[in-house]
Design a protein that fits this description.
By secondary structure, the chain is mainly beta. It has one domain: Jelly Rolls (Sandwich). About 0% of the residues lie in helices and about 50% in strands. The chain starts with 5 loop residues before the first strand and ends with a strand.
Amino acid sequence: MPIPGIVASGISGSKIATGSFYSIATVTPTSGSTVSFTSIPGTYKSLQIRYSYLGSSGGGNILARFNSDTAANYSQHRLWGDASTTSASGTASTNYFYAGDATYGGGTTQPCVGIFEVIDYAAGTKYATGRTISGSDRNGSGSITLCSGSWRNTAAITSITLTLSGDTFPSAGSTFALYGIN
């Protein structure tokens, strides 16, 4: 029985049907500390932000807030590792969603890249959940981060604001792209 959304492509296997990944907006930050996506339509199942970040002073954490909510309505889990250290943490109530680790981002040639996905962002009946994978490399001294969490609010997400702790987004070299997924 065929799986919905999968199209057979012969003996070699199957592939995802095209037409389920939609570009909503792309932001190249100007000098400052935030990236904002506003007026997000509620017509998709999930949202995904893909980014490539070049820091101005070498790092920070990329923090997301939904609908300008700065209260302690976010919870999350985080796994982090670099060439010599690993850590894990969890937070039951904080005022942001962890959207990536840019600790080793920075400089002019080594970007931090990541994918931040928000699932059920417009459901209206349950909390939105999210996950992040991000990483960077500086000739062997980079890091990787995996995160998951939720926003404890049932409102549809219509805006996402990203800030950078410990740094500001530079005026050139970084790109943040928002996609809708069905």
